[in-house]
Specification:
307 residues; mainly alpha; Mitochondrial carrier fold; 11 helices; 71% helix; globular
């Protein structure tokens, strides 16, 4: 066997053969990347939830979570390490639905909007595609999102997912799982549009201008930039969503997202919309890095093109 034939054979064995682009596999890989990211960042997300509900008149047993570090320490002291992972099962369910769809449908929506060249797609088309896929994912996953928030906000002895499902249903019926739906959808549209458009645009700009090659370094830088952008854009809507989802039984403190926004502004001031911003940013950074880099690597391993 000649040396050139030997080299070609090694390349065939070493590299996965290109496969037909599959929206289903792309969506499946998005779910895997998102579940991995949620598992890594869930403790930070739990502290963020506690910070966001603080100050709305909720019973906190005198505990005050001044920042992410004291928040983590106090949760571990009063609830043990398990307290940081309250709601993890609901979080995995949420990511399996919400993030699978919002990432997996991004490229089909780009094609639908007329994007043919991934390297030179206008930013506004990426933003629209991200918003559309975020809308669908969040609308379908709202029940799991609500369960995650309520489990994370729960300061008593931990209960399982089934207990919380029964609790919500017995108090509000099936529609109880759709509390905060409007805020959830608006947040998801802003978040997904910002995340994917920013990541996609920065990644291809770095490649097109030959600043970085398509690989780990490029994916890391693009993910970090996307994480910062979505934390700034979505924090105000995120706190409204959390407050709506965590309303106590037997009362309805807020009539809707606009009433909730008004009350937060009136009672706590404009900076209250950025309560929990530090853990929000500290979560979005690692979450986005793990989620998108795992997603890209799985696609590459399977022989599919990157985003």
């Amino acid at each position: 066997m000649s040396q050139s034939q030997e080299t070609n054979l090694q390349n065939v064995v070493a590299k996965p053969q290109p496969k037909e682009e599959s929206d289903l596999m792309r969506t499946f890989f998005a779910g895997i990347g998102s579940v991995c990211a949620a598992s890594v960042t869930h403790p930070i997300d739990t502290v963020k939830i506690r910070l966001q509900i603080q100050g709305e008149g909720a019973k906190l047993g005198g505990k005050q979570y001044n920042n992410i570090f004291t928040g983590m320490r106090m949760i571990v002291e009063h609830e043990g390490m398990r307290g940081l992972y309250k709601g993890i099962t609901a979080s995995w369910m949420r990511e399996s639905i919400y993030s699978s769809l919002r990432l997996g449908l991004y490229e089909p929506f780009k094609r639908l909007l007329g994007a043919t060249d991934p390297k030179n797609t206008p930013f506004y088309l990426k933003f629209l595609a991200g918003g559309m896929s975020g809308f669908i994912g969040s609308a379908l996953a709202n029940p799991t999102d609500l369960l995650k928030v309520r489990m994370q906000a729960w300061e008593g002895p931990p209960h399982g997912l089934i207990w919380h499902i029964k609790d919500v249903y017995s108090n509000w019926g099936i529609m109880g799982f759709y509390r905060g739906l409007n805020a959830t959808i608006i947040r998801a549209i802003l978040l997904n549009a910002t995340k994917l458009a920013t990541y996609d645009h920065i990644k291809h700009s770095l490649i097109n201008y030959k600043i970085l090659e398509d690989g780990y370094g490029c994916h890391f830088v693009s993910s970090v930039c996307a994480g910062v952008c979505i934390a700034v854009v979505t924090s105000p809507v995120d706190i409204v969503k959390t407050r709506l989802m965590n309303q106590p039984h037997g009362s309805k403190k807020y009539s809707g997202m606009f009433d909730c926004s008004r009350q937060i502004f009136k009672q706590e001031g404009p900076l209250a919309f950025y309560k929990g911003f530090t853990p929000q940013w500290m979560r979005f950074g690692p979450f986005t890095i793990v989620q998108l880099m795992v997603w890209e690597k799985l696609r590459d391993y399977y022989g599919m093109k990157g985003i």
